[in-house]
Amino acid sequence: MEAIGNFMDYLEFEKRFSSHTLKAYRTDLQQFARFLREEEQIQVLNDISSPIIRSWLVKLMEKGIDPRSVNRKITALKTFFKYAMKSNWLHVNPMLKVVSPKIPKRLPIYLEAGKLDFLLDSTDFSADFEGVRNRLILELFYGTGMRRAELITLKEEDLDMHQKQLKVTGKRNKQRIIPLHDGLLKLFDQYLPLRGSVCGTESLVFLTSNGRPLYPELVYRLVKKQLSKVSTQKKRSPHVLRHSFATEMLNQGADLNAIKEILGHANLSATQVYTHNSIEKLRDVYKKAHPRGEE
Question: What is the pLDDT of residue 141?
C-alpha cells in the first residue's frame, strides 16, 4: 500500500523514530498488508474492519508468536490508523475495538555485582587498542546503563572529561547527560590516544581496529563472550549490563527518579520494574537475618 510508504516517511522525518523502530514498524505493516492482500483480498483502507484485524492477530498467536511481539504489531497498527484518520484516508478507525493480549510480567535479567566485579577485575585485557576498547565498552555499559545503540553512536564531542559526563542520544533522538566515575575517566584516558592511531577522520568514539564504526553484532558478541565467563544464564547481552546497572543502583539506595533520568526512560513505570528485583533481595536478607525468617 502506498499509504504505508507515506506513513513511514512521516515517522522518519517528522516524528524522528529510531532506525530500529522504523524497521520493526515497516516489517509489521508489510506483514499485515500481505495478509490483507493474500487472505482477505483487500487493498482499500476503508475495507479493513476490526474483525479482520483480530483475525490476523489470532493467526499470529496460533503460530506461537510471543504476546509481546503481537502487542508491538498492534502498536504499529494503532499508530498507522491514527495517522490514516488524521490524513482523512479513513471514515472509521478499525483499531478502536481491538484489545491487546495480556502479557505476563517478566522481570529484568541481571547479574549480581560480585560476579561483574570479579569479571572486570580478573580478566586480563590486553593493553593494545582492542583490549582497552573492549574493557571500556564493558565498563561503560555497567557504569552508565547505556543502550547498545547509544554506545555505538557516541561521538567525541559527546564526551566531556572536564565535567566528568557524557551526552547520550537515546530513543527518538532524546538527549540526556550521564555522569562518569573516575574509573571510566581513567579508561578513556588510556583509550583515546590508542583510538587516535586508527580513527582517521571518524568522529565516533568506538571503532573497529580498521577505523570503521562498530556494528551491533560485534558489540553483542563481545559482551556475550565476557559474560559467559561468570554466568550460564541464557541471556548474556549488553542489555543485561544495563539491567545490572539499574538494579545495583537501586540496591545501593539511589533515588528511582534519578535512575529513570540516567537510563533515559520516558516514564517512571519503566524504571519501577527494577524494584521487584530489589524486593526479592530484601526477602532473602530477611530470611537469613531474622531469627524467625526461615519458619
Answer: 97
